[in-house]
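Example 3.2
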Amino acid sequence: VQLVESGGGSVQAGGSLRLSCVASGIIFSSIPMAWYRQAPGKESELVAAVSSDGTTHHADFVKGRFTISRDNAKNTLYLQMNSLKPEDTAMYYCAAVTEGVWGQGTQVTVSS
């Protein structure tokens, strides 16, 4: 079972990034998926989640700016991040929480 994230990088405030997470070794379409992030010196926090039927949840601090989605045909989870702020700087992790599987993370750095 493996989750591999990509799409992180460095952008200026107000910019956009799209994170991707490709899953293998799991029945992706039937599993709830989520994005978490962890900034240096801070605890991990849930950014967004999507159920197997496509129902989404976004943390208040990203509502209106980030959008989680999934493409079950491609076994891929996405996080579209718009209007990025310096406080969004963190390592972002893809997770199949119910399976106890996490990706290795992708770094997002937003400069002011």
